Amino acid sequence: MVTGPTHPSPATPSDDPGDDPGDTAVAALEQLVREIDRCAVELQDARERAQQLLGRRRSGDSWLDIVSGETRPLVVERISTVLSALAGAGSSWRRAQARALQAEAVSINRIAAMFGVTRQRISALLRDQPGSSAGTLEDPPA
Predict the structure, then answer these.
(1) Domain annotation covers residue 120
(2) 70: how many CB neighbours lie within 10 A of its CB?
(3) Taking the chain, what is the end-to-end CA distance rounded to the nearest angstrom?
(4) How many domains does the chain have?
(5) For the chain, what percentages of helix, strand and coil (3-state, to nearest 5) are there?
(6) Cβ contacts of 124 within 8 Å, gap of 6 or more
(7) Keywords in UniProt for this one (predicted)?
(8) Which domain holds residue 37?
(9) Does residue 1 belong to any structural domain of this protein?
């Protein structure tokens, strides 16, 4: 009995998402959705805590008493954590999306126009590895 090849042939897509930029983009987008959901819960908790702080301030408590009595993570720490998490997941998605578009033979100029940045920025995005600062679309400081 012949069962067929045990390894994918060159014409057969691999199950490894790292092999296909489109699959990598799907994985990055799924991760972004999970991060958005997690951050939404975290922001709701931060909002509730901020409302409590407002209540204390409106009741006449000093800022020193309010901040000194606040348990960690502080509201400001929660917000910073959320922003950082979203920036990281967004960068991974942006890089994977650009690579998937490039794999579909979309020009760097067209990707740049879609993303609203320069073609140099897209070139840097495509060149850099995950986890680097190139996932951000802001131009680097001069």
Answers:
(1) yes
(2) 16
(3) 66
(4) 1
(5) 70, 0, 30
(6) 134
(7) Coiled coil
(8) 21-130
(9) no
